[in-house]
Design goal:
single chain; alpha/beta; Rossmann fold; seven-stranded mixed sheet; 7 strands; transferase; methyltransferase activity; Methyltransf_25; SAM-dependent_MTases_sf; Methyltransferase domain-containing protein
Length: 260
Amino acid sequence: MRIGRICWKGAPVNREEISRIAHADHPIKAPLDDESVRQLLAKALPRGDERVLDLGCGGGEWLLRALDTGPQVHAEGVDVSPEALAQADEAATRRGLRERLVLHRQDAAQFAAPQPFDLVLSVGAAHAFGGLLPTLAAARKHLAPGGSVLVGDGFWERPPTAEAVEMLGDFGDLAAVVDSVVAEGWTPVNGHISTRRELDAYEWACWGGLAAWALDHRGDARSGEVLETADTRRTEWLHTYRDSFGFVSLVLRRTREDRA
């Protein structure tokens, strides 16, 4: 989602730090609540002994919740951010899941593994691959026969303004997004369209989290700019894309296993 780099004279805050603050109360970095995540993972991990890969895992919350579904699940995460991987490592250790998790500091698009995975995850990270379809092409390289991909990306619920498209991307509507996925040889076997409550809760958590940090650290030289950033992002959400942006998560399987 839209967490950028902000900096000010003498006191830069990088993307990872801003993301950590903004997502402190919403560790799933996408507009889904805990029950929606649970249901998607339950559908994507039916056996309970799957190998799971997250391309662009960030702080690893999806992987940790996948590992929580059963003691025989094993997972690997790939991300370029050392800060995010350190966060994933710490969280996995704290939750007693570290021995079943492997973390790779690497560009997800260049990652290669000796064995395929039963589930490949990439939720809210399509920008790293250049869009949803390139994300699916990357996931396909790692997928075991009969395996599933769980992806999440935006779509336009209503015709967006030019400003909204410039800000978030040139998505299609929901039907167009799903049709494009099917045309690439994938069959949806489950999915979730984020509700208005989920979408709003995510935005409030992100920009409210930044604002709260700024107000709690008034003596910090960075607080004024953090608060300004929170105000700007909240205004963009309310005035530019709240009424048009939607988010869909899909559990997909290959329609034909012999098709690359």
